[in-house]
Amino acid sequence: MKILRAPQSVAAWSERLRKEGLTIGFVPTMGALHDGHRSLIRAARLRCDALVVSIFVNPTQFGPTEDLTKYPRPITHDRALCRAEGVDVCFEPTPDAMYPEGCQTIVTVPEIAHRWEGKTRPHHFAGVATVVTKLFGIVRPHVALFGQKDYQQAALIKRLVADLNLGVTIDVRPTIREKDGLAMSSRNRYLSPDDRRAATILYQSFQAGRQAIEAGAKSVSTVECIMAKMVAQESTAHIEYLALCDPASLEPLTQVKGRILLLGAIRIGSVRLIDNMLITR
Ligand code: AMP
After folding, report:
1. CATH code assigned to 2-173
2. Which of 51, 54, 112, 218 has the fewest Cβ atoms surrounding its Cβ within 10 A?
3. Best residue among 26, 30, 37 to mutate for probing ligand 1, ranked by most atoms within 8 Å of CB
4. What's the CATH number for 186-275?
5. What is the pLDDT, as a whole number, of residue 55?
6. Is the C-beta atom of 156 inside 6 A of ligand 1?
7. 37 annotated active-site
8. How far is CA 248 from CA 45, 142, 159, 220, in A?
9. End-to-end distance of the chain based on CA atoms, in angstroms?
10. Ligand 1 pocket, 183 CB below 6 A?
11. How many Å lie between the centroid of ligand 1 and the Cα of residue 176?
12. Can you give the residue ranges of every domain in the chain?
């Protein structure tokens, strides 16, 4: 496995492979890799001739009070995981290489970015959209894989690829969970043992929402209420949002029918957890 830090080296590698007619798969990450990332890497390995994983804790998607400096960076572990999964290139750019002096272009996807996550994290999605566009420009992948765990992020990336004619196929893969249902996340390690136990309440609230929908619940507010009551059973959990929305537009639903996305974010102590579940009725 090559470890490349310079964007130019990755671009040159990609150019060479493209000339040979090989397909390039790409999994962008912020490192602290777990089985959720591993599932994307494995799927990419099966789909493509060559595989790039980027590990870059992107400063522009963190707010001023967020966890940029303490975000975990277990690079030895991450490289070992990539090597074991047959990754060809581990791309580890520095912030200076990604954002050299003088750079000023920002990519925004306003309608998707202002909802849900965007309300609490106003600059987050401009940071994500900009870095993903830049990474696509460097790696020039044929296929890029993202997790359904970050549903709004995946929707935003699909939109920006279509809007900017980037010519990258976006493959969104299911959320990988712990045995008790908690969605795997690099941030779960911040949870104290008590908070870790309480954290499953978000997934349980989706299960309760799904059961209510399957049992014929008539109104959106009934289902949202059932989900909120479930979360309220954990006194340390605070709801940021818990909603039924349209899986395509992410707009709040007014009727319980068709394809339904249960979307939620809660805080337990200082840790924010997000998750979602897709249902069809
Ligand atoms: P991150 O390193 O958190 O930026 O995530 C990198 C990629 O891994 C994103 O596409 C995430 O959606 C995806 N991902 C994170 N957690 C999971 C999970 N539990 N299951 C599947 N994909 C995930």
Report:
1. 3.40.50.620
2. 218
3. 37
4. 3.30.1300.10
5. 98
6. no
7. yes
8. 28, 23, 10, 17
9. 46
10. yes
11. 9
12. 2-173, 186-275
What pLDDT is recorded for position 67?
A: 86
Cβ proximity of 32 and 72 under 8 Å: yes
Pocket test residue of 42, 75, 149, 179 for ligand 1, highest count of atoms within 8 A of CB: 149
Stretch 25-38: mean pLDDT: 98
Q: In what helix (H) or strand (E) does residue 8 lie, and over which residues does it extend? A: helix 7-19
Q: What is the pLDDT of residue 48?
A: 98
Helix H or strand E encompassing 57: none
Cα–Cα nearest to 127, from 224, 209, 58: 58
Mean pLDDT of the chain: 97
**Angle 169-170-171 (CA atoms, 0-180°, nearest 5)?**
115
Tell me if 43 CB under 6 Å of ligand 1: no
Q: If you average pLDDT over residues 141-152, what whole number do you get?
A: 98
Average pLDDT over residues 70-86: 97
CB 210 less than 6 A from any atom of ligand 1: no
Q: Is the CB of 134 under 6 A from ligand 1?
A: no
Q: Has residue 12 got a pLDDT over 90?
A: yes
- Three-state DSSP state, 227: helix
- Residue 15 has a pLDDT of 98
What average pLDDT does the segment 247-268 reach? 97
Residue 256 dihedral angles phi and psi, to the nearest 5°: -90, 80
Give, to the nearest 10 degrees, the angle between helix 35-47 and helix 75-84: 40
Give the position, in ligand 1's atom list, of the atom nearest the Cα of 145. Answer: 10
pTM: 0.98
Longest dimension (CA), the chain: 58
Q: Residue 145: what residue type?
A: L
Nearest residue by C-alpha to atom 11 in ligand 1: 147
